[in-house]
Amino acid sequence: MTIEVAIPDELLPSLDQRSRKAGLERGEYVLSVLSRDLSGPRPFDEILSGFREEVAASGMSDEELDQLFEAARQDSLQDR
After folding, report:
1. To pair with 33 at 20 to 30 A between CA atoms, which of 39, 54, 68, 78?
2. Which residues contact 55 (CB under 8 A, 6 or more apart)?
3. How many CA atoms lie within 13 A of 5 on its CB side?
4. What are the pLDDT digits (tens) for 7-66?
C-alpha cells in the first residue's frame, strides 16, 4: 500500500540527516520510524542495552555502579 504524506519543508533537513545517519533512503527511514512507533513500547531490556554495554566496557564494578547511583540520588534529593 502506498500513502502520500506532505512533509513540511522545515522538517526535511532533519529527516534527511537522520536518514543518512541510519544509512537509509528517506522513505525507508520514514517506514522504519513508523514501524517502530506502531510496534508499541520497547522492552526495558532493549532500552537499557546501550547503557549496559557502556558499563561493561568501562570495567566498573557493581559496587562502583551502586555508589554512582547513590551519589546521583543524594544529589537529586538535595536539589529538591
Report:
1. 54
2. 65
3. 12
4. 999 999 999 999 999 999 999 999 999 998 999 888 899 899 999 999 999 999 999 999
What is the C-alpha to C-alpha distance for residues 77 and 80, in angstroms, rounded to an integer?
Answer: 5
Cell reading at 68: 554512582
Global pTM value = 0.55
Domain locations in the chain as residue ranges: 9-38, 44-79
**Whether 65 contacts 55, CB under 8 Å:** yes
The rounded distance, in Å, linking the Cα atoms of 39 and 46 is: 14
What number of CA atoms fall less than 13 Å from residue 24's CA on the CB side?
A: 12
Give the cell for residue 59.
570495567
